[in-house]
Automatic annotation (TrEMBL):
GO terms for molecular function: phosphorelay sensor kinase activity. It comes from Methylomonas methanica (strain DSM 25384 / MC09). Residues 265-481 form the Histidine kinase domain. It comes from the Bacteria. It catalyses: ATP + protein L-histidine = ADP + protein N-phospho-L-histidine. Its EC number is 2.7.13.3. SUPFAM superfamilies: ATPase domain of HSP90 chaperone/DNA topoisomerase II/histidine kinase, HAMP domain-like, Homodimeric domain of signal transducing histidine kinase. Residues 205-257 form the HAMP domain. One of its GO terms (cellular component) is plasma membrane. The keyword Cell division does not apply. It is an enzyme of class 2 (transferase). InterPro entries: HAMP_dom, HATPase_C_sf, HATPase_dom, His_kinase_dom, HisK_dim/P_dom, HisK_dim/P_sf, Sig_transdc_His_kin-like_C, TCS_sensor_his_kinase. This is histidine kinase.
Length: 481
């Protein structure tokens, strides 16, 4: 079963929070228990010191241990009074201890009582020994387990207080405090989990909303709805993703519009010469127009226009696909340009156009290029100037170079091109004036082919206003090293 991104984000945030809360809870419990145990041990140490001091004082006043050894009740009272926080009578099991032997300590108590207690009280873990380590209150079998603390009187050891191993005693209030703290920690952890779940739900919603919106928009885009756009609500990665999506949708929309315009332009360009051919052929068939050489020449001109259009379409399709063949070699582009100028010289002369070639190169500039494709590039540009420059005009070809780049500029005289049209000249089927281009036999594909040829040679091409009053095309090629 597929889960939504919101559920995954929610579970991720919640699981992360649960791990953090659980870790904090365990650490706080460990820290509290450790601190509490250290405090209890410190309190027990103080109580032992107080008991040792009280026993020393007793020895001083009584002159020995004999009176205490004969008075078990006093021994128990001294043990109870050593805890300054106790304000109660001895526990029930201490009363039971009075029934046992006088010197037997710790007393035997019920196993149930011992099992119910979490800690062994200090009274049940101490024994009193004389200076010679004979037992005053204690058990012979427990002597090896004792930790002996000396009792001194006037600089002399007069006895020992023996301490059996075991956990320090805790008062009921202490235990209740620990229980309350434990419960408080549990409630705090539970509250943090609930708050974390709400926060995770909110974050999952806030982060999942733009992602879900992008997914819905992507589906719309896949259905061909290229006008869809996403709101950019933040400057983070999600905002950048929405911005990139909008740019992609805009590019696809432009591509779709270009495709439709391309199909419409191709249909229009093919329909025009075919309609003319059909009209002339029907006129010949109906006898409206006589079948003579002039009629054949007119038909041939229409066929040639159609042939040029299909050839341009074919060349453009090949260049778009990168399928144009390029046989590159080290060549001098100026020689190719001079040969093309010589081939078109009669047409320039027939239109009374003055052509000037300026070679301002410092040294010979060689290109790693295809001579045939460069010739196709130059002829397209020169024919463009030939077709659209008024009779008696001027064409200047400027060739220059530096250490890395060869620059070729082809500028002609009036008429010029509007500023808004300069950037669109290399778009296929674009004409500044549709009727004028068609009258000159062009379909608006020549400059598109030129752009692809220049790109195949890692160069750049741009159109700008000419100082002569017409159009200037500037081409830059990287020089071969």
């Amino acid at each position: 079963m597929r889960q939504s991104i919101r559920i995954k984000l929610f579970l991720t945030f919640l699981l992360t929070t649960l791990l953090v809360v659980a870790g904090m809870y365990l650490f706080m419990r460990w820290s509290l228990d450790r601190g509490f145990n250290e405090w209890v041990e410190s309190r027990q140490h103080e109580r032992v010191e107080d008991l040792v001091e009280a026993l020393g004082d007793y020895y001083d006043h009584a002159g020995g241990w004999a009176p205490l050894a004969a008075n078990k009740r006093q021994w128990i009272e001294m043990l109870v009074q050593s805890d300054n926080r106790r304000h109660r009578h001895p526990a029930h099991w201490m009363h039971q201890a009075m029934a046992g032997p006088v010197d037997r300590w710790p007393p035997d108590v019920d196993e149930d009582i011992e099992r119910k207690r979490r800690f062994i009280p200090l009274e049940m873990r101490v024994m009193l020994l004389a200076a010679d380590r004979s037992i005053i209150f204690g058990r012979q079998e427990l002597l090896p387990e004792l930790t002996l603390i000396p009792i001194e009187h006037r600089g002399q050891v007069v006895g020992y207080l023996g301490l059996l191993p075991g956990r320090a005693d805790n008062q009921i209030g202490d235990l209740r405090f620990m229980e309350r703290q434990t419960q408080a920690f549990a409630w705090i952890a539970l509250l943090m989990i609930v708050l974390s779940a709400l926060l995770a739900l909110l974050l999952a919603y806030l982060l999942g909303r733009p992602i879900k919106r992008i997914a819905v928009a992507a589906k719309q885009l896949g259905k061909g709805i290229y006008t869809i756009r996403l709101p950019v609500e933040s400057g983070d990665e999600l905002g950048q993703l929405a911005l990139d999506f909008n740019e992609m949708a805009a590019a696809l929309e432009q591509s779709e519009q270009a495709r439709r315009r391309w199909v419409a332009d191709i249909s229009h360009e093919l329909r025009t010469p075919l309609s003319v051919l059909r009209g002339e052929l029907e006129a010949l068939q109906d006898g409206i127009r006589p079948m003579n050489p002039e009629a054949v020449d007119s038909l041939l001109a229409d066929v040639m226009r159609l042939n040029r259009l299909t050839e341009d379409l074919y060349q453009l399709a090949l260049s778009d696909q990168g399928a144009l063949t390029y046989r590159k070699a080290m060549i001098d582009p100026l020689q190719v340009l001079q040969a093309d100028l010589a081939a078109l010289a009669p047409e320039f002369a027939a239109k009374q156009l003055q052509v000037e070639l300026l070679d301002r190169r410092q040294t010979a500039a060689n290109l790693y290029a295809d001579a045939d494709r460069l010739s196709q590039l130059f002829r397209n540009l020169l024919k463009n100037s030939l077709n659209y420059t008024d009779s008696g005009g001027r064409i200047v070809i400027d060739v220059s170079s530096d250490t890395d780049t060869l620059v070729i500029g082809i500028a002609d005289s009036a008429p010029g091109v509007g500023v808004n049209d300069l950037a669109k000249l290399f778009e296929r089927f674009y004409r500044v004036e549709s009727s004028r281009s068609r009258n000159h036999g062009g379909a608006g594909l020549g400059l598109s082919i030129c752009s692809n040829i220049v790109a195949a040679h890692n160069g750049s091409i741009r159109a700008q206003a000419s100082e002569l009053g017409g159009l200037a095309i500037v081409i830059k090629f990287p020089l071969a090293k």
